[in-house]
Amino acid sequence: MHELSIAQNLLALCEKNAQENNATKITKIHIKIGRLSGVEAHYLQSAFSVLQPESVCEDAELVCHTQEVIVECDKCGFNGELVKNEFICPQCKSTNLKVTDGEDMYLMRLEMR
């Protein structure tokens, strides 16, 4: 379960941001998880809840936003969401696609005081 190490890194990043902004509490953490990132939001939530006590994130709510897969077609220029897990352009049926979003996990916003 690599979500535990991701949760540890997320908490460390939150602590760092809180210190840099002279905050004593983080109340809400917004993250974006790409469908192709390999991160399972419910496992991350569980790991986070185990690690958050006795930290600046002790009472923080972790809000996970799922990012769909966004592709760009090198053949026809289509730029948009892939509805299925078929890496075929929905317009021209080319397989010459580049993924532009949906592969990573990002810390999007922290609410702190």
Question: Brief overview, please?
Answer:
With 113 residues, this protein is α+β, with helices and mostly antiparallel strands.
Task: Average the pLDDT over all residues and give the rounded result.
Answer: 96
DSSP strand (E) fraction?
25-35%
Distance between the termini: 32 Å
**Tally of individual domains:** 1
What is the molecular shape?
elongated
Order of helices and strands: HEHEEEEE
Give the strand order, joined by hyphens, for the main sheet.
2-1-6
Number of helices: 2
- Based on helices, strands and strand pairing, what is the structural class? alpha+beta
Largest sheet: 3 strands, mixed
- Are there runs of 5+ residues with pLDDT below 50, and where? none
CATH top level label? Alpha Beta
InterPro entries: HypA/HybF
Organism: Campylobacter majalis
Family: Belongs to the HypA/HybF family.
Function: Involved in the maturation of [NiFe] hydrogenases. Required for nickel insertion into the metal center of the hydrogenase.
